Every structure is written in structure tokens, then in C-alpha cells.
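Friendly challenge for the regulars: who can give me the C-alpha cells for this chain first? No prize, just bragging rights.
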Amino acid sequence: MPASNLHRPGWREPPLTAMRLVDTCRLLPSRFVDEEDSVLSALADNQAHLQELFELDNATNQRLAAERGARPGIGIDELVFGVPNFRIINAAFTYARPEGSRFNDGSRGAWYCAFDAETALAEIIFHKTVEYAEIDYFQDSVSYQLMLADFSAQFHDIRRAKGYGSCLNPVSYIASQELAAFLTECGSLGLVYPSVRHAEGTNLVCFRPALVNNVRKSSAYQLTWNGSPTPVVSVQKAKRRRSDKGNAVTKRQE
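First reply, four minutes later:
Bragging rights claimed.
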């Protein structure tokens, strides 16, 4: 059936916007960012023990399962290989929360990012604070790595479109997940939408791994809760590469 004929009651495709996005921002827990040594190395007594831990981890690793074609939500032909940080890209699509997120369900993940670091930080702080509020415990310190990525594609865009307000509900993802399911069936590449957690911020959810380009590290963030729902944020700025000096890049073209 042609994608244009696909229909879910109540939904229609939002307008498309051709965009070139440079330096979009995604914050990841630092422990998940690729390092030269595996995080399992610190747990192993010797090389034989480390190998056993690798085998156990691989048996339950959803990203590796998807790369072997064993994850029903995403095909191996959609994943990326041989590019910098490809494991981080693939993990975004293969490690979905069981209940899903705003624009994906539990069967398939997506690459969420913001147009600026302030919005990405606001999103992370909101969700971590909710977690601590549920257990009434605001004593923790967590490190995050800011990952930048570039995009050049046509994305569906609900920033100024009417009829999608329910997809920006601050407490429910029911409508937004329905829209995402409809759009992915239609072959959508992704969706641009207003941030719910940061006024005037803008987010992108990308549905296709191959569109996540030039993923690289930027600044590191330390979020510390000292008994208050509002964390103390410290930033370690990334060292600027010499080749970056003087470069001027348009953030987005619409």
C-alpha cells in the first residue's frame, strides 16, 4: 500500500521542512559514551574473567542483538556501521524504554536531540528530577557527555502546525506515540517539535539511524543534587580544535 494511503484515525501528516542542522545537542550519561576500555574492565579480576563478562553482556545486549538481526523493532539494514560513534547511534534506536518516550514506543528507539545545549540540559534535568522525586531522594551526582550531530533532510514539523497540541502534553505520551507510529509507517525521517521542558527551545526526533551524521563529543556536564530538586550544574568545556577556528556554519536552513 502506498505510504500516502496509510491512515490512522485522527492523524494527518504535518508539513515538511527541508533542514540543514549543524551541532544539534544530545546529552548521554558519560558511562555510555564509547571509551578505549570497556566499563566491564573495572569489574574483572583478570582477562579470563573479563571475557566471561563480555560474553554475558553480549548475550543480553539489545544493540548487538539488533546488529545480528534479532530485534523485531528495527532491521539490521537500518543500522549504521563503520562511521565514528556508530555504536552510540545504533544504541539510540535499539535501547528503547519499555514504556517508550515522547515519539517512540518500547519496540524501537529514536535519536532525540535539541537545537541548543540549554534545551538538551533542561530535558535531562526534568526527567532525572522526576526520577528522584518518585523516591523522594535528591542526593546524587551524575556526569553527562554532550554529543553533537549534524542532519540534512526533510523533517515533519509541528512547531507552527495546528492540531498537534496533544502531542506536547507534559505528562502523557499517548497522543505523541500515536503520531510517531503513523509517521514512521508513512516513511517519515523525523519530526521537529517545540521543547516541552524549555520555553522557546526546539527538539528533533530522528527516526532513521543513517541520517545521524558526524557524531562527536563536546562539553562534559556534572549534575549534582544536594537535597534540592534543582541541581548544581558544572560544565567542562570541550577543547576547540584548531581547524574549527574561524569556521562559520549556518545552524539551520528552512
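The chain has one domain: 3-31+40-244. The first strand starts at residue 16 and ends at 29. Your move, everyone else.
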